[in-house]
């Protein structure tokens, strides 16, 4: 469903602002969609109305922004009770896994960036899935050594990695939680037992994926009861999920990694008809979350910080912004073809480095520091001075401690995923992107009432190219490269923005562009998320259909770009921290919301 949304864009030239405001269209939260969340408190309805009007939600004490109002309200209740951002995340994630199971859940993984108000330090938690110990580099190749078609690899047990989200939730709570662990599951458990209203978005996605969702009986029984897809407005219950949450609440995440639920996961993967996998009880038993240093890159007077390898997010966002640091985008404005030429080709150069160098650095050497070194990015930015689209791009030569010759990666990332931003009353900031990878993951429903990921298809299906190894190939215990980009922007040592998005490898462009919208073009946080998208990863400029950006197809074409008009359904959620005021935004293309007090 599409509607016009007029944005008051705060930029240098009023004529350009009016042009943009007149032509922006996005998917908003209509009256029909809002009906799915009837019965929620006034604060949620008011926040939905603010989003529909293109305005941020404002608060002073705390705020939570996420992809579904039911999940946001669960987090708000925790924050209202004095819970930390880590506590609220557990409540939000467990409800998201119920009400938007296509995007994230207990059967998936996540990356979390945390700012600790007491210490003033940033850190990250890596809850990414791992490849089973029995996996080989040829996991996604046929008997002739040829890469499988994407969905032939995805649907079934072959694509399932060891889930990380349950362990990450517990690790975050153990480090930064205030409330009792067991109390954080109340909202999700109640909704699972008593039922929740199916939203139009979930109903549409279920109907559109019938062939794959009905391949396995347990999945079909849940999403297609009596052979018909669940419909918007239906009440859906999930007693098995409630039982799983009870087990985690009582025993911790070990309930997922050992015992009956673990055995159910392994059996589901091994017995997936036509495409079984190799996940074992040992893989579940040895899984661990890893704390890693944040990766930061300078942009204007800020530091843009996020998740390092195995995510490519912070590095690639940082590279794009680091190259653009050499140009005055603010003077050009958000409808300037020249500005988008620079953004597009900076992104192409960053994606060239991403394809060649970025993977799980626990398994392959990576020039992490060199990729975001200011001198390297300045040298790469010199390639943008020509005034026309680059004829071709290739990986650069960042500084690193030893040589390694990698081939260009050939993995595929399709959009799904979800993002959560939270600021608590103590000033702690959480930015977490969470996923089961493709929409509905592997399409396998575990006996515990949750879908299993297809995260292993984020690895390259090929192992070598022209004799050189591919850094992101499958290896036992390895974590697949990701584009998830949970981000905290710092200024003068303090957080000023928490942001992230779903969207496959387009996540990187969505996040970078939203930061540019806010920092260079003066948009408030809601405007920055609702402004039209233009994304260039590998040469073709994807322009958001039905928006002012679509009018740039001709000038960008004259510069030498191929362009493609299409829907670009991001799911950005962000919180701006401006002194004592919090301003939250939720992507108008989806049903999320930002709520605060």
TrEMBL record:
Pfam families: G_glu_transpept. The active site is at 417 (nucleophile). Pathway: Sulfur metabolism; glutathione metabolism. Keywords: Acyltransferase, Glutathione biosynthesis, Hydrolase, Signal, Transferase, Zymogen. L-glutamate binds at residues 128, 458, 482-483, 504. InterPro entries: GGT_bact (IPR051792), GGT_lsub (IPR043138), GGT_peptidase (IPR000101), GGT_ssub_C (IPR043137), Ntn_hydrolases_N (IPR029055). SUPFAM superfamilies: N-terminal nucleophile aminohydrolases (Ntn hydrolases). The keyword Hydrolase applies. It catalyses: an S-substituted glutathione + H2O = an S-substituted L-cysteinylglycine + L-glutamate; glutathione + H2O = L-cysteinylglycine + L-glutamate; an N-terminal (5-L-glutamyl)-[peptide] + an alpha-amino acid = 5-L-glutamyl amino acid + an N-terminal L-alpha-aminoacyl-[peptide]. Residues 463-485 are annotated as: Disordered. Residues 1-17 form the signal peptide. GO terms for biological process: glutathione biosynthetic process; glutathione catabolic process. One of its GO terms (molecular function) is glutathione hydrolase activity. Its EC number is 2.3.2.2, 3.4.19.13. Coiled coil: none annotated. Cleaved by autocatalysis into a large and a small subunit. This enzyme consists of two polypeptide chains, which are synthesized in precursor form from a single polypeptide. Belongs to the gamma-glutamyltransferase family. This is Glutathione hydrolase proenzyme. It comes from Palleronia abyssalis.
């Amino acid at each position: 469903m599409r509607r016009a949304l007029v944005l008051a864009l705060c930029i240098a030239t009023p004529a350009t602002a009016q042009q943009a405001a007149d032509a922006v269209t996005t998917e908003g939260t209509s009256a029909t969609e809002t009906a799915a969340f009837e019965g929620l408190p006034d604060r949620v309805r008011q926040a939905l109305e603010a989003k529909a009007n293109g305005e941020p939600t404002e608060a002073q004490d705390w705020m939570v922004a996420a992809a579904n109002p039911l999940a946001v309200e669960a987090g708000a209740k925790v924050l209202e009770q004095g819970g930390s951002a880590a506590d609220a995340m557990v409540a939000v994630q467990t409800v998201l896994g119920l009400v938007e199971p296509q995007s994230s859940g207990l059967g998936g993984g996540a990356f979390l960036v945390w700012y600790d108000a007491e210490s003033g330090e940033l850190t990250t938690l890596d809850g990414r899935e791992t490849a089973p110990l029995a996996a080989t580099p040829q996991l996604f190749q046929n008997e002739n050594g040829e890469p499988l078609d994407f969905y032939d690899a995805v649907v079934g047990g072959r694509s399932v990695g060891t889930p990380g989200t349950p362990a990450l939730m517990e690790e975050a709570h153990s480090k930064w939680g205030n409330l009792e662990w067991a109390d954080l599951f109340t909202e999700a458990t109640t909704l699972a037992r008593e039922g929740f209203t199916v939203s139009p978005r979930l109903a549409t996605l279920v109907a559109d994926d019938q062939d794959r969702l009905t391949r396995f009986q347990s999945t079909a029984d849940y999403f297609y009861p009596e052979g018909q897809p669940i419909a918007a407005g239906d009440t859906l219950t999930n007693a098995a999920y409630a039982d799983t949450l009870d087990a985690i609440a009582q025993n911790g995440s070990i309930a997922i990694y050992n015992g009956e639920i673990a055995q159910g996961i392994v059996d589901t993967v091994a017995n997936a008809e036509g495409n079984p996998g190799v996940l074992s009880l040992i893989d579940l038993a040895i899984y661990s979350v890893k704390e890693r240093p944040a990766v930061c890159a300078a942009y204007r007077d800020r530091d843009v910080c996020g998740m390092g390898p195995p995510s490519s997010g912070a590095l690639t966002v940082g590279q794009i912004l680091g190259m653009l640091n050499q140009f005055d985008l603010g003077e050009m404005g958000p409808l300037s073809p020249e500005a988008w030429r620079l953004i597009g080709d900076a992104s192409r150069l960053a994606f060239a480095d991403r394809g060649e160098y970025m993977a799980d650095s626990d398994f392959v050497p990576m020039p992490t520091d060199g990729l975001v070194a200011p001198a390297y990015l300045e040298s790469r930015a010199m390639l943008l001075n020509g005034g026309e689209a680059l004829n071709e791009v290739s990986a650069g030569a960042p500084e690193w401690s030893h040589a390694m010759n990698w081939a260009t990666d050939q993995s595929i990332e399709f959009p799904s995923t979800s993002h959560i931003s939270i600021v608590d009353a103590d000033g702690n900031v959480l930015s977490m992107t969470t996923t089961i990878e493709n929409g509905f993951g592997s399409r396998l429903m575990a006996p515990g009432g949750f879908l299993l990921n297809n995260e292993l298809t984020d690895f390259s299906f090929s192992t070598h190219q022209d004799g050189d190894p591919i850094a992101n190939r499958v290896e036992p215990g390895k974590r697949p490269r990701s584009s998830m980009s949970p981000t905290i922007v710092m200024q003068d040592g303090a957080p000023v923005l928490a942001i992230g998005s779903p969207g496959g490898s387009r996540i990187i462009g969505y996040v970078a562009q939203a930061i540019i919208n806010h920092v260079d073009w003066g948009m408030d946080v809601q405007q920055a998320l609702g402004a039209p998208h233009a994304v260039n990863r590998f040469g073709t400029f994807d322009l958001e259909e039905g928006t002012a950006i679509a009018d740039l197809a001709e000038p960008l074409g004259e510069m030498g770009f191929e362009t493609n008009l299409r829907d670009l359904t991001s799911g950005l959620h962000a919180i701006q921290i401006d002194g004592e005021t919090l301003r939250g935004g939720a992507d108008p293309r989806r049903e999320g919301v930002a709520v605060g007090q």
